[in-house]
Structures
1.
Amino acid sequence: MNQPASAYFLEERHDPNETHTLSVLVQNEPGVLARVIGLFSGRGYNIESLTVSETESQKHLSRITIVTTGTPMVIQQIKHQLDRMIPVYRVVDMTLTGSSIERELAMVKVRGGGDHRVEALRLADAFRARVIDATTESFVFEITGNSSKINQFIDLMRPLGLVEVSRTGVAAITRGPEGM
Amino acid sequence: MTDKSHDPNQMTGAAMIVRALIDHGVQHVFGYPGGAVLPIYDEIFQQSEVEHILVRHEQGAGHAAEGYARSTGKPGVVLVTSGPGATNMVTPLTDALMDSIPLVCITGQVPTHLIGNDAFQECDTVGITRPATKHNWLVRDVNDLARVLHEAFYVATTGRPGPVLVDVPKDVQFATGTYHPPRKSDVHISYTPRVKGDATQIRKAVALLANAKRPVIYSGGGVINSGPEASKLLRQLVEATGFPITSTLMGLGAYPASGPNWLGMLGMHGTYEANMTMHDCDVMLCVGARFDDRITGRVDAFSPGSKKIHIDIDPSSINKNIRVDVPIIGDAGNVLGDLLQVFKAEAKKPDIKAWWQQIAQWRARNSLSYRKNNDIILPQYAIQRLFELTRGKDTYITTEVGQHQMWAAQFFGFEEPHRWMTSGGLGTMGYGLPAAVGVQVAHPDSLVIDIAGDASVQMTIQEMSTAVQFELPIKIFILNNQYMGMVRQWQQLLHGNRLSHSYSEALPDFVKLAEAYGCVGLQATKPSDLDGAIKEMISIRRPVLFDCRVAALENCFPMIPSGKAHNEMLLPEEATDEATAKAFAGGKALV
Ligand SMILES: Cc1cc2nc3c(=O)[nH]c(=O)nc-3n(C[C@H](O)[C@H](O)[C@H](O)COP(=O)(O)OP(=O)(O)OC[C@H]3O[C@@H](n4cnc5c(N)ncnc54)[C@H](O)[C@@H]3O)c2cc1C
Ligand SMILES: Cc1ncc(C[n+]2csc(CCOP(=O)(O)OP(=O)(O)O)c2C)c(N)n1
Ligand SMILES: [Mg+2]
């Protein structure tokens, strides 16, 4: 017991962290995103990625997809804390469903000439990235896939003249006929 | 075309607010006026169903509403203006959130077209109070107002209770729209708190209880939240099982302190027997408590050998700090009712004689003992006398925060729920005096006592004036040790007794201060004066400020040193300087 004298128990537990993707169905009303984000910052939870858009406009429903990391106990807390917010309808842990599909879109700007230019195009083709803008010295690629595929593509572009990247964050949905 | 001018549901936003209060049975509102709520104050002026209690600081309104709520089970209602009125409410809202107290706070806001312009007395009230409330709303359209107000009451009082806030711009207060009485569709369909416990889980719990050899019931504030019925059922369960029972600070009174199975409070300043029973038990039944860090101490050494059952209405309380084996989501009263029924039908009282013998040995350590003193009033003695002399009276106790609060919890025996109002989660100094105001408003003929500290009481002392104006005969019983005693204790135990800024320098003359406010001031300096002065205080039907001069350097024991387990408690007779130094050896990170 070497913790400094304190009113709190200071030793942290060292359970391993896990990454989970959560789909959160919310009433689309003013402040709802601030509530969700405030929950994460206020309670010290991680947000790796956050994507939000209205998905059913007649019912004013929005779907928020959050990728977060934490120990299993923290992940469970996050779900309960989200679920008890008044405008939250449902929280589904896509990672636990075991059959979810995750996609992200990125636009990747690369600048260069000569061999680098040819190599960038060749790799883009291999990754099924599309050219959506081109000048004599640059390309913008559009690539869709799971996050690791996009990370891999970006890493490959780095030595070829990577200028900047804009990513949407992760969207997720389950396989099969059922909705959330 | 219909003529709307004769439709009784057509009214201004301000009128709707008062109307909604009446429809929700609100009899008292605690508040403070200002530019952004004047239309509402104008409506209040023109009716007599809702009584407005004018405080002296908005924080006072918030704590008064908390005291009102905790002592009645009804929501407390607060009305304050925009900007500083709203920011002054942040502390009581947070306090109520931490302690699960139902509050409905209505704030004025600058007119909608000025929002975002740094208008006079504008602040982002919903932004500031978002993490301080269970939910909050900004109402931009008068036709949404009735729905939002009704939803606000519903959200505050159902599920895990808590504070809510409705921010109403001044133009919305003036605008005319359609009011409707409360109806089901006012509430978000996404909000569905669960009340009834899962039958399978309840069966699992009964199986554990029935086979327990070393059981304990650990109850908390959730039993109080659930209402008097839950306390009744808890008592029946204790009776039916014969189990020992302890409670958190927030749950005192659910089981009577005079009951045979009562172990006293548990936790950092709980009794030895309560903490040892928790540590060594084999089955723990937690009802409406949240495994707070003041309870668990070292989490990896918390009750290591037990199976844990946890009844709580809020799923986020489950497995937050401590992993439990049988979670039951539901209302404490409702689940206890079902549990009791199954237990009575399927189990019989387990034989736990050996366990009670063990507990008797722990009890014999007499962990709340203190040495007697004929010259100086010891704070523990003062609370004991206060308790004895108010016994059998219709008494409500509030507290401030510090050593006096812990001594009140240890030495004042609570026989009924809703009689004990204290700031547990946030630990807000300045809570007790305004809370007493609120309690006295709800119970005008009862004896309402704020057990206070000399430092805490100065934080909201201005509410004496409220007590005088509304003829609320509250009693403020100050355990005056001339220190921020709790801070001094930590400094002594952890910081080499360097008493940095914990001395109450330049204390006011409390007796004169009382007189200046138009209250009665009393003082006791010797043990032999104490009983007479307390009796005098009780007999006076006006607000009293009682300056009880107590030993300056008394420490609050027993105590679990931080980072230690329940079975490593420091007991008063063991708390020699040496032993204390050893128990607290380490660095210096204080609260
Ligand atoms: C200086 C100081 C020292 C302290 N020392 C101690 C100490 O030694 N011992 C101690 O016990 N405390 C102590 N406290 C208080 C402590 O900080 C916590 O406030 C307290 O322990 C929490 O009590 P609780 O677990 O009963 O939870 P509460 O805060 O009362 O929470 C209630 C729980 O019940 C649930 N609930 C609410 N309504 C219902 C319902 N209808 N049905 C079912 N469940 C419901 C809630 O979801 C929540 O989980 C101290 C505080 C201060 C300021
Ligand atoms: C608003 C606020 N500020 C600071 C604290 C930290 N604090 C806890 S107890 C305490 C001292 C309380 O002194 P007093 O009211 O005299 O009570 P005593 O401990 O002496 O009984 C302080 C400063 C607090 N709990 N609340
Ligand atoms: Mg003091």
2.
Amino acid sequence: MQITEHPVLDKKFNEEVIFYFNNQSLKAKKGQTVAAALMANSIRKLGASRKLNKARGVFCANGRCTSCFVTINGLEHVLSCTTLVEEGMRVSSNESDPDVRGESNGN
Amino acid sequence: METDILVIGGGPAGMSAAITADRAGARVILVDESFSLGGQLRQQTQHFAPLPGSEEKVRGTALGNDLIKKLEASKVKILKKHIMIGSYRNENIGVTDGEKTFAIQSQKNIIAPGAAEKAKIFPGWTIPGVMTAGAAQILINRERVLPGKNAVMLGSNDYSLEVARQLKACGVTIKAIVEDKEQMISSDMELLHDMKNVPVYLNSTIESATGKEELNKVVVKTPAGLYEMEADLICIANGFDPIIEPFEIMGCNLAYHKELGGWLPEYNVYFQTSNPSCYIAGNAAGITTIGPVLLTGEIAAIGALEELGFMEQEEAEAQRKELWKELAEIEKRENEKTFRARSELIEGFHQKIGMAFPEEFNMVNGGAHNG
Ligand SMILES: Cc1cc2nc3c(=O)[nH]c(=O)nc-3n(C[C@H](O)[C@H](O)[C@H](O)COP(=O)(O)OP(=O)(O)OC[C@H]3O[C@@H](n4cnc5c(N)ncnc54)[C@H](O)[C@@H]3O)c2cc1C
Ligand code: FES
């Protein structure tokens, strides 16, 4: 959920953006990270662990733990907590290891 | 790219170092991996005790904005969204913006990457909804989103209670504070007062956190048995570790000091590490409070400025003496054990490399050992 009235801080975000998560269209504020934009829409599961297939989400919100990986505009393994959401951005959850040896990576 | 002084990290320590270096006429580049400056001050809405040279309490976020303004008005070249990822054989520093990687050639580096929160492991700690206390604080204050509605706070130090208070002010219900020690760690009357209606479980741990895709149930193990509660948020406040990767990259020697947060680089009274081109500042040099974080940035900058000839020896010594005095005063008052550990680290390093102590340090440090 978005916090519209913060108890001590002035309003920070004005502009709205529309982006997509697993092809679903969602609204967020310009200036928020992808992780926060998803949380604003009550989406907290951002992917699944590769071995036991357990749900993963934001843990540190600070770019240090790598728990919040998603795919953004086709680029796999992007930290959603340190990337700002953009108009039209296509985000999908991280369900497995990226195919680093795939053709899209040139080998 | 080429410069006199390269600062890694745009938190309070790095900004304070960069502003000091710029004022003395050095060319400075400051690199930060984030899309905005301010480091961890960006989510700290609490007030700090008066800072060196001031008598007023100041909000963390306001202090951050103030430093950013000063920095942006200076000649420092600021590179946001740039990460230090390595070094070249000639010790140039490798930086990337995610697309291209390039070298920065500098005469001295001041490395101030800050600290990271420690995790705490219990069954279910990886479920969405379990996060560090700092993550919850970032989400409400920086990002303006609610991370959950019903929270369990793990840990009872000042920091955990401060975050619990901020969550509460945003409308989150604090269901419980869980502490494995036999009493609350915080002794801050104001914070304790704010939490007076929250159930506190002492000598207790989290037995399990469960939920299918997201957290919805927490079981707490207490001396009186197991308590089950509905909660969609667990905040872990388990302390901080100095961030050491950039120092490892630069081949700096490390030492272990529990009171300073664990493993961290060795450094001398000038805040210079075992790699003479690298100075250290901020929480990376030992977990402390905001006053010392800012002062270490200044002391490190003065060391680099003196070595590069931007400041006369006499002037540098005089300034360092004042800054060390302030640092010692604040840290002894707010965190005596931290100051002792810091002195120990510095003395150990001086002994190891056979480096004499400047007079200014003996003066401020004397009390820590005789007392
Ligand atoms: C989530 C969190 C919450 C905190 N909350 C509090 C609090 O409420 N109260 C308190 O007293 N302390 C808190 N702290 C401790 C914090 O370390 C200090 O408050 C203070 O911000 C330390 O200042 P600093 O300049 O040393 O580090 P920081 O403020 O952390 O700044 C370091 C900067 O370096 C950048 N950086 C790191 N590595 C690299 C790299 N390789 N390349 C480029 N840039 C890099 C980071 O992006 C960051 O901006 C918190 C820490 C964290 C992690
Ligand atoms: S949540 Fe830890 S890196 Fe994003």
